[in-house]
Design a protein that fits this description.
globular, 19 strands, FAD-bd_PCMH, FAD-bd_PCMH_sub2, Vanillyl-alcohol Oxidase, Chain A, domain 3, cytokinin dehydrogenase, about 35% helix, 17 helices, 5-stranded antiparallel beta sheet
C-alpha cells in the first residue's frame, strides 16, 4: 500500500536522512551551541543522565540522546525548543516523565531529552487547588499519586484515573489515561478543562475547548506530537472515604461479558446508584495468584480458586467498586446488592473487601515494591494493549485467550479485559478508538528476562496477525508501529487531521521522535 504524504513531510524526512550522515559533527555543533544558551547550566551531558534517558520501563529499546535538559520551569523548555526550531540544523526533542513508555516513545536519539520530573513545585507548575475546590491546576511533570494526596487533603479528588498512579499528568494526557472508571467518567483526557502547551514552534499556548481549541484537541491523546503539556486544569469532586471492593469469578465468557456490559449501561456521571469502577481480568493456570491482580483473594479461599483454575484453565474475574462516605454508609450495601442482582457469577465465588479510597486507588504500588525487592521491576515489559470492538470480543477470546495464550503457555502476568462506552470519549481529540458504541480494552502485562523478551513479542505479533486475519479491527492503546502504513491504518479517518495539526504545531518534526510517526522511513 502506497501512502501519499504532503511534499513538506517528504522533504523533512529526506532532510532527516541527510542529517544522519553528518550525525557526529552535527551533534558536537549542537552541544557547543547549547552551552551558549542561558539554560546551559541545566543541560547535562553526564553519562548517568544520558544512560537513564536512553531507556524506559519497557527495557526493549535503547536510544542515547546527546544531552538531557533539567528544566526548573516551562520557560526553560520553551527556550530549548526555540533554539532547535531556529537552528539551521534542528535537533529532536522528547519530554520524559516517569519513563513508563514501553518502546522508546520518550527517547530522542542524538537529540535532547527533557527530564520533566526535574521541575519543582514552584514556578507555577506545582499543584494548586482552586479556592472553590472546583478544579486543580497541575504541572505536567507531577505524578498522579501526588495529585491524589494533595486533593484528598481538602476532601476532593479527580474522578478518572489509571491503575498505576506513579505516572506523570502530561504523560497520561498525551495518551488517554484509562482504568476502571473510564466506562462512567471517560478517560483522563475527557476530564480536562484546559492545558498549557509548548508547541514545536516554541509558542506557549493556553488552550481549552473554547480557546485555541485545535491545539487542545490535538495535544490530548496526541502522543506528544504537537506540544509538551506543562499544565492541566483537572475538575474535582468531593472525595469518598471508603470503597466496597468486590470480585466475582466466571467460567463462561459470555456470562462474563454480558454482566460487564449490563453494569456499564448504568453510567450517568451524576448517577449515585451507578458503579464507580469496573474491570475484568483473566486467571490462568499458567500464572500465579501471587500478582497485583490476585493478591486480593483471602488466603483461606485460594485453594478452591486454584482448583477452579486448574479445572477450566481460564477463569474470568469481574472486579467492581462502589464508593461511600459517612452519608451513604448505611445504604451502600443495599445499592450494591441491587446492582449485582441477577448477575451470573459462580455461586460461592464472590469476594468482598472494604478499603480506604486511597488504598484502592494506589493498589498497584504495594505490588511494585514487592517486585522491586525481588529485582523483578526493572526488567523488559513486552506489553500489548488493545481496543477490541464489542462485536468481536468473543472471537478474540476464542482465538487469542483460549488458543494462542494457552498453547504458548508463557503468559504469567496480569491480563485485563473490560468494556468502555464510546460516548464518554471526545472524537475531536487525537486518541483513536473503535467505531462501536461499546468496545473492550485488553491488556497483556508481561514481564520477562533480558534474554527472552522476544518470545513475548512473537506472541504479541501472532495475536495481531490473528486479529487481522479474523477481521477484528483492533486499535492499539499506547500504540507502537514500525511502518508509516501502520500509523496511517491506526489513525484511519483521523490521519489527515493528524498530519495537518503536525504541520501547524510542529512543522520541523522536532517533538517526540521516539513515537516514529513522522520520522519513520518505512
Amino acid at each position: 500500500m502506497a501512502v501519499a504524504l504532503p511534499s513538506f513531510f517528504t522533504a523533512i524526512m529526506i532532510m532527516s536522512r541527510l542529517m544522519a550522515f553528518i550525525g557526529i559533527s552535527k551533534n558536537n555543533d549542537m552541544s557547543s551551541k547549547l552551552q551558549a544558551l542561558d539554560i546551559a547550566p541545566k543541560v547535562s551531558h553526564d553519562p548517568s543522565a544520558i544512560e537513564s534517558a536512553s531507556q524506559d520501563f519497557g527495557h526493549i529499546v535503547k536510544a542515547a540522546p546527546q544531552a538531557v535538559l533539567l528544566p526548573s520551569s516551562p520557560r526553560d523548555i520553551a527556550s530549548l525548543v526555540n533554539f532547535s526550531y531556529s537552528n539551521s540544523v534542528p535537533f529532536s526533542i522528547a519530554a520524559r516523565g516517569n519513563s513508563h513508555s514501553l518502546n522508546g516513545q520518550a527517547m530522542a536519539k542524538n537529540g535532547v531529552v527533557i527530564d520533566m520530573t526535574s521541575m519543582k513545585s514552584g514556578n507555577g507548575t506545582g499543584i494548586r487547588i482552586a479556592s472553590d475546590g472546583s478544579y486543580v491546576d497541575v504541572g505536567g511533570q507531577q505524578l498522579w499519586i501526588d495529585v491524589l494526596n494533595a486533593t484528598l487533603g481538602l476532601g476532593l479528588t479527580p474522578v478518572s484515573w489509571t491503575d498505576y498512579l506513579y505516572l506523570t499528568v502530561g504523560g497520561t494526557l498525551s495518551n488517554a489515561g484509562i482504568s476502571g472508571q473510564t466506562f462512567r467518567y471517560g478517560p483522563q483526557i475527557s476530564n480536562v478543562y484546559e492545558i498549557d502547551v509548548i508547541t514545536g514552534t516554541a509558542d506557549f499556548v493556553t488552550c481549552s475547548p473554547n480557546n485555541n481549541s485545535d491545539l487542545f484537541y490535538a495535544a490530548l491523546g496526541g502522543l506528544g506530537q504537537f506540544g509538551i503539556i506543562t499544565r492541566a486544569r483537572i475538575p474535582l469532586e468531593p472525595a469518598p472515604k471508603r470503597v466496597k471492593w468486590v470480585r466475582m469469578l466466571y467460567t463462561d465468557f459470555l456470562d462474563f461479558t454480558r454482566d460487564q456490559e449490563l453494569l456499564i449501561s448504568k453510567n450517568g456521571r451524576n448517577d449515585n446508584k451507578a458503579l464507580n469502577y469496573l474491570e475484568g481480568s483473566l486467571l490462568l493456570d499458567q500464572g500465579s495468584l501471587d500478582n497485583w491482580r490476585s493478591s486480593f483473594f483471602p488466603p483461606q479461599d485460594q485453594p478452591k480458586i486454584i482448583s477452579l483454575i486448574t479445572k477450566f484453565r481460564i477463569v474470568y474475574c469481574l472486579e467492581i467498586v462502589k464508593h461511600y462516605d459517612s452519608q451513604t454508609k448505611t445504604t451502600v450495601d443495599k445499592d450494591l446488592q441491587q446492582l449485582l442482582k441477577g448477575l451470573s457469577y459462580l455461586p460461592g465465588f464472590m469476594f468482598e473487601k472494604d478499603a480506604k479510597y486511597e488504598e484502592f486507588l494506589n493498589r498497584v504500588h504495594s505490588e511494585e515494591l514487592k517486585l522491586k525487592a525481588k529485582g523483578l521491576w526493572d526488567v523488559p515489559h513486552p506489553w500489548l494493549n488493545l481496543f477490541i470492538p464489542k462485536s468481536k470480543i468473543s472471537d478474540f477470546n476464542d482465538g487469542v485467550f483460549k488458543s494462542i495464550v494457552l498453547k504458548r503457555n508463557i503468559t504469567t502476568g496480569p491480563v485485563l479485559v473490560y468494556p468502555m462506552n464510546r460516548k464518554k470519549w471526545d472524537d475531536r481529540m487525537s486518541a483513536v478508538i473503535p467505531d462501536e458504541e461499546i468496545f473492550y480494552t485488553v491488556g497483556l502485562f508481561q514481564s520477562s528476562g533480558f534474554d527472552d523478551w522476544r518470545t513475548f513479542e512473537d506472541q504479541n505479533k501472532e495475536i495481531l496477525q490473528f486479529c487481522e486475519k479474523a477481521g477484528i479491527k483492533v486499535k492499539q492503546y499506547l500504540p507502537h508501529y514500525t511502518t508509516k502504513v501502520g500509523w496511517v491504518n491506526h489513525f484511519g479517518s483521523k490521519w489527515s487531521t493528524f498530519q495537518k495539526r503536525k504541520l501547524q504545531f510542529d512543522p520541523k518534526l522536532l517533538l517526540s521522535p521516539g513515537q516514529r510517526i513522522f520520522n519513520n522511513n518505512q
